[in-house]
Amino acid sequence: MVDVMLNGIVISRVGEKQADKITKKMVDLRRKGKIHPEVTIANIKERGEIRIDTKEGRVLRPLIVVKRGESTLKDEDINKLETGKLVWKDLVKAAKIEFLDAEEEEGVLIAATEKDITENTTHLEIHPITLLGVPGSLIPYANYSRGDRVNYGTSKGVKQGVGVYSLNYPIRFDTFTNVLHYPQAPIVQTKLHDVLHFNHHPAGQNFVVALMTWEGYNMEDAIIFNKSSLERGLARSTYFRPYLTVENRYPGGQEDRIELPGSDVTGFSEDNDYTSLDEDGIVHPETWATGDSVLVGKTSPPRFLGAMSIFRMGVESRRDTSERVRHDERGWVDSIVVSENIDGRKLVNVKVREDRKSEIGDKFSSRHGQKGVVGLVVPQEDMPFTESGVIPDMITDPHGIPSRMTFNQLIEVLAGKAGSSNGQLMDGTPFEGDPVEESKKILEKNGFSSSGKEKMYDGKTGKIYEVEIFTGVIYYHKVRHMVANKIHARARGPVQMLTRQPTEGRSKLGGLRMGEMEKDALVAHGASLLLHERFGSDKTKVPVCLKCGLTATHDFAKDRSYCPACSNEEVEWVEVSYAFHILLQELISLGIYPKITLRDKG
Fold this sequence. Notes:
This protein is of the alpha+beta class. The protein has four domains: 2-131, no CATH class; 149-236 and 360-478, Dna-directed Rna Polymerase Ii 140kd Polypeptide, Chain: B, Domain 6 (Beta Barrel), CATH 2.40.270.10; 238-356, CATH 2.40.50.150; 539-589, Alpha-Beta Complex (DCoH-like).
């Protein structure tokens, strides 16, 4: 027997022979318009179930219906669509287009193109590009690439690429944003660029690129940049960070005040911290602010109210809670908005901007998932150059191509070179774009080698390279992961209260965690003495009882040490990690006796 399920609930049971008939009958009723076109029917024979779904939230995909080895959508239908005599709904009503979900797709045979239709084919893709989805269809020649690389390209390019995310960005206060200064439309495009109007808000630039290993600074996917290109504005962006302050009200009538803090306030900083503030306690626009600079002066009532803390000599005791720039950021005060929140409390928004010129460590990615960080920035005069004097903006490593099989990247470099030499946009639509032969013909017509390779000269010595170098034009994204937001180091700083080890994370002035593998690397490197420094961040001295071996107590007032367990005063101070000291205390709390036996080092 086969279960008939409606939205996951069994409503009937039928015989196996009837299951196919029921499924076919319901599909016919849907195509005749007797059932809603968005109802899906799937006969899952492996599980013995017919699943009928009508729920919202399902992803449905339009497909062309194929009958007797022929597409039901004819040329005259397409002509009527173009002239407006037919609309999409008419095709659905006529059962030439139908919507399927993932479950019903399992039981049909879909052809990518009309050439692929066989006698068993049930449906046809509207266009093969619909296999890729919206971001994937923006990748040129995606059909020449592996699926995982197409996924990488969508993530690194469309989602994380820096561009102009919104035209009203100057008046917005988003969490943190990057805006590219000179975004360009790609030379190699797909048809979806026009459909989605992607050229109106591009998120990258066309780079002149050479594929070569240049002194090894681009190994492991790193990128070598031309310094002069960066100085001319290539890949330059602005980073915006907003800061928000509210005058809160507390129980008991206490409230915050946005003002210039006075010297009597608890936690008052040195005078030069408040020099950039106006009388109302808010910073001037276009002021240069560095880490921990005060943007909005604010004072708050004491945290814990008591009879003595509310009034001291008749004056209210307040503390400084000013809004400051993050200690690891800096920039110019861009804009300030003073308004009210939903409770009618005063609210101040301050936006800080920083100009970002690309530097070593910044991340870039092509549209094909070939991502890498800048490994070296080279003066233009030291960069290699072609016979015609073209100096590439970027040098990438050819070793990244074979293992990833991103053949479409090479095709884009070739097509980009052809398009820029001919002054035209190239069509890289997957499955039907300009063929490689077209790019080769254009290159030959304009005096280039059809292979895309050129003779190049070493900028330092002037000597010609023994091999020809593959060069061209490719669209690259500056990805929002910039080294300025991630670089992090510390010599000393705050520690956690419980473990006395350094705090964690860049925002808390934290240290870098070193584990077993990092320890092994130091030992293998012959720098094992560093372990004393790295693994001694919570070094402490603990008194240990010589009689019972438990940690003793030290009375600082009387300057004497004694063991609370056996009242012995024979105590020895031992240097241990504070984490070990906590472990001993936790073992005692579990009723375990961790006895420490001491002996002389000698």
